[in-house]
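Re: that chain you flagged

S.,

Sorry for the slow reply, it's been a week of failed gels. I finally had a moment to sit down with the sequence you sent. For the record, here it is as I used it:
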Amino acid sequence: MAENAFPTGTLMAGKRGLIMGVANKNSIAWAIAQQLAAQGAELAFTYQGENLLRRVKPLAESVGSDTLLECDVTDDATMDSTFAALKDKWGTMDFLVHAIAFAGKDQLAGSFIDNTTRDGFKSALDISAYSFVDAGRRASQMMNDDGAMVTLTYLGSERVIPNYNVMGVAKAALEASTRYMAADLGPRGIRVNAISAGPIKTLAAAGIGSGRHMFRFNKAASAMQDNTDAKGVAGAALYLLSDLGASCTGETHHVDGGFHAIGMPQEDALRASLES
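Prediction finished late last night. Pasting the structure tokens below so you have them in one place:
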């Protein structure tokens, strides 16, 4: 995606926020970061391990950020140090973008009931859902009133998607957490929302079995009969994190070309998806 693909302006001027979950230049979180930076936001990024640091650092530098914080969301000590470092640098913050999810590849193929292990279930829920609760609590302690938080989810939380399995359960927990967080933080004017993005070719999507069929079917069956554009997801995040999103909280906002609204795809489109 071209660096100049995002509308520029001042919607986020003077605002500071943390982006959690950029893996590479194809990440949805990176598209969101680019859009926020193009609107004047000051950004900080988290990463886990040296391999991700090598990918994230040049991206962060390209949007003028020198704040990269190592963070393992499953470890309280590193979460403590991450947010302590951010508080030392900024004092306060205005927004949080959470784009972290994980389930073992062995959990994302075949039968949900047969292949979901206790450890796999606990890990998926911890990393994909509880991490937003934990990060949101810590961020809220230094967030200015009228701040905002956004997390990323997927339609597999609402409907059965082949091979999505335990991640669908984790995303359902994430969306429920979003609503409870919105209620807790609403009196301070802090808004908490989720974006349910359609399939986008990211590192995370590559781990799902039958992914190629998922992309073909979503393109054919969506109202727009096109793939989801990361730029559209970034625009939705801008709306929800900026003052344009006032009074919107506890919402799961679908950005999937209208796929979620379709009960039965057009016959020709369905046939094309199966034959391609």
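What I noticed first: The longest helix spans residues 118-140.

Talk soon,
D.
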